[in-house]
Each structure stands twice: as structure tokens, then as C-alpha cells.
């Protein structure tokens, strides 16, 4: 097996459904943990509003349904709020949470674009 084939198999195992092989399962869990931690840093107010256990449930479901496909995790800030709006529970508080995520994601994107634009002008 070539290195490329090995890498492709590893990537498929890590990004796919849970794996039985305990050695690969370590990477599978670590990958998801890093993505959830990234979402924590991108949406600190949402994390505070929901609490870590509920936020993590939403985040893991998001990662399962819409795994990152781009070269940057910054795209998570664009798609996580949409996911929350589309999959929100039928609860009174859910609309406010989806709105908070949308606003926090928009703020982050605006700040990220401002920093990127400033760096390009320098």
C-alpha cells in the first residue's frame, strides 16, 4: 500500500463513523475533541449560554452531519449557526440560541475578514 493510500484510509477512518479498531478510535475521538474545542473558542457566548454539556451535544451532532471539508476551520463559524437554526429543538429558548449563534458567527467573520484585509494591505 502506498503512503497516499494509507493517508486516505486514515483520513476516512478519522472523519467517518466510529471505528472499532481501538488504535484508530484514539485519533477519531481526538479529532472530534479538537473540533469541539475550536467551536468553543469561536462561540464563547453561546457556550456560556448553553453550558458545556448541551453545547457539546449540538457541536458533535454538527460535526457528524457536516464535517469540515475546507482548508480552514474558520468555515465552521459560517456553518454552525445555520446548522443550529435548521436543527433546533421545538423549545421556546431555541430561537434565541440560534440567533445568538448567528450573531456571534457574523461578528467573528467580520473580525476575521478585517484582520485578513488589514494584513493584505500591510
Give the count of helical stretches: 6
Q: What coarse outline follows from CA principal-axis ratios?
A: elongated
Structural class: mainly alpha
Average pLDDT taken over every residue: 86
CA distance, first residue to last residue = 46 Å
Radius of gyration: 17 Å
Keywords:
elongated, 122 residues, 6 helices, mainly alpha
Description:
The protein is mainly α and 122 residues long. It has one domain (3-121). Helices cover 78% and strands 0% of the residues. The chain has six helices and no strands. The chain has helices at residues 3-15, 22-42, 44-50, 52-65, 76-87, 94-121. Helix 1 packs across helix 2 (22-42). The protein is elongated and about 50 Å long.
Brief summary of the model shown:
The protein has 122 residues and is an all-alpha fold.
SSE arrangement:
Blueprint: H1 3-15, H2 22-42, H3 44-50, H4 52-65, H5 76-87, H6 94-121
Helix pairs in contact: 1-2, 2-4, 3-4, 3-6, 5-6
